[in-house]
Amino acid sequence: MTTTQPKPSSKHAIKGLLPGELAEFFVSIGEPKYRAAQVFKRLYAQQADSFEAMTELPAALRKHLAETAEFRPLELAHLQQSADGTKKFLFRLADGREIETVLIPSESVEEDCAPKRLTICVSTQVGCALNCKFCATASLKMKRNLTAGEIVEQLLQAQHHSDKPITNLVFMGMGEPMLNYDNVMKAVEIFTHPDVQLLGARRITLSTAGMVEGIRKMADENRAIKLALSLHATTDGLRTELMPINKKHSLRELGDALEYYYRKTGSPVTYEYILFEGLNDKDEDARRLQRITRRVPSKVNVIPFHPIDFTNPSGISAQLRPTSADAFHDFIKRLRELDVTVMIRSSSGKDIHAACGQLALSHGVEGA
Ligand code: SF4
Predict the structure, then answer these.
(1) 215: Cβ below 6 Å to ligand 1?
(2) Is residue 218 part of a domain?
(3) Per the confidence metrics, is the pTM higher than 0.90?
């Protein structure tokens, strides 16, 4: 998709500021500091859709804010709805780049044991540098980090398109959240702020491809959000082929970091495991997976692979196929026999390219 390149706004980015920063902004434009707390609540807790809508503020202040502050850091460019109710949003940023966000009615196919949820999967970067071989976002390369405001705004705008409240949030969209750690955590602080309470911390999950420094930082800061690791392989050889980041941080190093995280936070860990035919779906994989995941209390989300239309697949990308339905269920059964806690993730929205690893496919998102 070709996009015109709007000039970045000269107005101050007001979304994504924490209360103290918002107060400083008010002082900088000559407005009373105490108004900042009022505006903070209106932006997030009551989700005002413009400065003009904040009618409890004096008209002169509303006008001043509209002149000096940017209300929306991103615009909805396209919305698609899947047959299963999943919605995919294409958002255009102020610099013309594009990202995708997915709203999923339920993450699990095991409805009987899963509560009703509405989960938002948000992006944290434009593109990604990590080059995982099963992921469409990787083909975009890394363009830039999203600001805290651009991260928060994905939820605010998606909420307008649902009559049910968003109950869960996963940082599993485009980008590696640990490589944009400060902005991601700032967004978390806004979502969970006592004056906002959009989400409880335990309803937020950060999924990493295996950034050991970030895992240890989350542990040291005793972050209350949940942690997931995209594992996808049980040997360093295969994992390095699928996820080049494994060259930097081996499975052993990752296991050590997760143990450190668990000792500090007491939080169990979720492992994400996409099944690829003939590569990671055998009995020995199930046994190795059990050994890897028993180091700390954990569960494993097993995810079906949905093929990606690479233009010129090469190397391992050319070998990626979904495991057959029978082999998929045998693998789950084997894990359960080995006492591994397993959930089947449905990869909702595959008909609109909104499933795991597919973001950036349908609109040719380029990151400009
Ligand atoms: S799977 Fe995640 S970390 Fe890997 S390339 Fe895709 S967006 Fe980046």
Answers:
(1) no
(2) yes
(3) yes
